[in-house]
Write a structure and sequence with these properties.
Layout (H helix, E strand, L loop, with lengths): L1 H8 L9 E7 L4 H15 L1 E7 L10 H6 L6 E5 L3 H6 L3 E12 L1 E6 L10 H10 L3 E4 L2 H13 L4 H4 L2 E4 L4 H6 L5 E5 H5 L4 E6 L8 E8 L5 H10 L3 H9 L3 E2 L1
Parallel strand pairs: 1-2, 1-3, 6-7, 6-8
Antiparallel strand pairs: 3-10, 4-10, 4-11, 5-8, 5-9
InterPro entries: ModA/WtpA
Protein name: Substrate-binding domain-containing protein
Pfam family, one: SBP_bac_11
């Protein structure tokens, strides 16, 4: 009887509205966030709507391009040095910016191919010289390889001509499909791809440590909830997941 009265008077219990945070995430951290979504929902009742978005580049999916056309998110998880230009343009809330993890570049070959020896610089240089095709990303690791690493190794135009930049697609997939003999990307990104063998991290003397960070966007309508999610990304659970996926927590 009471239930009937409540229903007819419009005073019944309303189901709580579930919060959803839209998160743009670049490839290096994507496997981490994807694996943490259900835990975060269980802990907080907040749904994470995760979308893959490169930290840089001119593809439509890239974070700067999306923000420029007002395709906005609540949280950005991306290469850390790419956050500063967004702070300068006041597209993000600088006070919310947190560094999350270190990431290192690894090399992969197609599954079934004998992994070459890249245990020292000379052997690594030989592999690059002898490879027919070299796939790199259009983001942080690829830019470093093309603009700095080849020069550090003393490799000239002949090797550079074999380098193919892969936009908005995992490099590992290109290698798995046999479209490149070897591929380079952040270790965590390669670990998420089937059909490849990760040879290992590139030699330390030519390695690059890329930091990943997170920040709340200026356009977020729920900045407090967004900030709480970034705080969660510094939790023990999140740090364990980063380690599992091939990153080093900051």
């Amino acid at each position: 009887m009471l239930l009937a009265v409540l229903l007819t008077t419009g005073q019944g219990w309303a189901a709580p509205t579930q919060t959803t945070l839209r998160v743009f995430c670049s490839g290096g951290m994507y496997p981490v966030i994807e694996s943490l979504k259900s835990d975060y929902l269980r802990q907080t009742g907040t749904q994470i709507e995760l979308e893959a978005a490169p930290s840089m580049g001119k593809t439509p999916q890239a974070i700067p391009e999306r923000l420029a056309r007002q395709d906005n998110a609540d949280v950005l998880v991306m290469v850390d040095y790419a956050i500063k230009p967004l702070e300068n343009e006041r597209l993000v809330r600088a006070q919310s910016h947190k560094v999350l993890a270190h990431s290192f570049i690894a090399m992969a070959v197609k599954k079934g191919v004998t992994p070459p020896d890249i245990s020292n610089v000379q052997k690594f240089k030989q592999v690059l010289t002898e490879s027919d095709s070299i796939a790199i990303s259009d983001s942080a690791s690829g830019r470093y390889i093309k603009s700095e690493m080849l020069a550090k190794l003393g490799l000239g135009g002949k090797t550079a001509k074999k380098v193919v930049v892969i936009p908005a697609t995992p490099v590992g997939k290109v290698v798995a499909d046999g479209k490149a003999a070897i591929g380079f990307q952040q270790n965590s990104e390669l670990k998420a791809v089937k059909g490849i063998t990760i040879v290992g991290l590139i030699p330390q003397s030519v390695q690059q440590d890329t930091l990943y960070g997170a920040v709340v966007t200026q356009s977020s309508s729920q900045p407090q909830k967004a900030g709480e999610f970034i705080h969660y990304l510094n939790s023990d659970k999140a740090r364990e997941m980063m380690t599992e996926k091939g990153l080093t927590p900051f």
